[in-house]
Design a protein that fits this description.
Blueprint lengths: L12 H13 L7 H33 L3 E6 L2 E7 L5 E4 L1 H4 L4 E5 L7 E9 L4 E6 L22 E6 L7 E17 L5 E11 L11 E4 L4 E11 L5 E11 H14 L8 E2 L2 E7 L5 E9 L4 H4 L7 E5 L2 E2 L3 H8 L7 E8 L2 E8 L1 E2 L1
Antiparallel strand pairs: 1-2, 1-4, 2-3, 3-6, 4-5, 5-6, 7-8, 7-10, 8-9, 9-12, 10-11, 11-12, 13-20, 14-15, 15-16, 16-17, 16-18, 18-19
């Protein structure tokens, strides 16, 4: 290194005098100056130590968790999954498995793909469980974290197989929690509406779906599911905005599928109707028409009937099926709220105790 770059610049005499006066006014003495330099040197030395420690945390977490993240081939499509237990159960997204019932799974420790079969898909929460036909030696389940302890600013790693690149890792932070997100489908329709999603700046690319969002404690805090799209950019992916299904939801859904073969307690609030979006004279979405009321359901018990048009749930305006799903998503079965609707041109309100979807 050129020594001249480390040499202090020589100051003109008047400026040097001002600097000395400033030092005296601040209470500095010649005897204290070396201590200041030592402190600065110590701080400078701490920076690479901190960087080394963070890098070490990354490498430790990757070494511990990445072997539990697998690549799933479902027909012609590729996605990711997380080993849920030592019995060969793997949790992934419902949109990863699609309509397939058999799969090829590649683990980090095995070059050859392994056969797996569908246990159950639960599209309402975009989760599914598959099971390896034969459990290989050394298969390790990934530990799931506590969703209640996930907070903004936490460093996270997204692990999966983006664009078919198996065992890839990206990093970011938790950007927000408690997001309600409605997925879009490839046919242009809407998919599942999921509450309490974890938003992250870690890159979520095609193929990451079903993988692991992991904190620096080495625990899976979510299942990366989708990246936000920007309508202003023709629907292309918006960088740095991805969403993961929280670990608490994963435990609830996967646990029931494995134990009971299906989800018997969704925890998702519902009105007990079949509905469709209606439009006004200007072809703008204007509410949800009740096509059918389930007998014994929440809406039926509250007096709603076929032909009614729901325009508000609690304090939330309802313009279409998606807005109704998003208004229901944060609520729980048994919650009380008010439904505003129109019948024969007149606005009415009814108190309703929400049921379960």
């Amino acid at each position: 290194m050129d020594a001249s770059r480390n040499r202090a610049p020589r100051l003109p005499a008047p400026v040097a005098a001002l600097v000395c006066c400033a030092a005296l006014l601040a209470g500095c003495t010649a005897a204290e100056a070396p201590a200041g330099r030592e402190e600065t040197t110590a701080r400078a030395a701490a920076v690479p130590r901190a960087a080394d420690a963070l890098e070490g945390d990354y490498q430790r977490v990757i070494k511990d968790v990445l072997p539990s993240v697998v690549q799933i081939q479902a027909g012609d499509d590729l996605g990711s999954g997380v080993v849920y237990d030592g019995k060969g159960h793997i949790v992934t997204n419902a949109h990863v498995v699609g309509d397939e019932r058999t799969f090829r799974v590649t683990t980090a420790n095995h070059e050859d793909s392994l056969a797996a079969s569908l246990v159950r898909s639960y599209p309402e929460q975009d989760l599914a469980v598959i099971k390896l036909d034969k459990v290989p030696d050394g298969l390790k389940a990934a530990p799931l974290g506590d969703s209640a302890k996930v907070g903004m600013g936490q460093i996270v790693l997204a692990m999966g197989s983006p664009l078919g690149l198996a065992s890839s890792v990206t990093q970011g932070i938790v950007s927000a929690t408690g997001r309600t997100v409605t997925e879009s489908r490839s046919d242009g329709g809407t998919g599942a509406t999921i509450a309490n999603m974890v938003q992250t700046s870690a890159a979520i690319n095609p193929g990451n779906s079903g993988g692991a969002l992991v904190n620096l404690d080495g625990r899976v805090i979510g299942i990366p599911t989708l990246a936000a799209t920007d309508p202003g950019l023709g629907g292309s992916t918006a960088p740095g905005i991805g969403f993961a299904i929280p670990a608490s939801t994963v435990k609830t859904v996967a646990g029931q599928i494995i134990d009971k073969g299906r989800v018997t307690d969704s925890g998702r609030a519902g009105l007990g109707i079949t509905g469709r979006t209606v439009v006004d004279g200007g072809y703008r979405s204007a509410g949800v028409a009740v096509v059918e009321v389930n007998r014994g359901g929440a809406a039926g018990n509250a007096g709603l009937r076929s032909g009614d048009v729901i325009t508000r749930l609690g304090d939330t305006d309802i313009t279409d099926i998606t807005s109704l799903a998003e208004a229901l998503a944060p609520r729980k079965p048994g919650d009380r709220t008010t439904v505003t609707y129109t019948r024969d041109g007149s606005e009415k309100k009814a108190g309703v105790t929400l049921g379960e979807q």
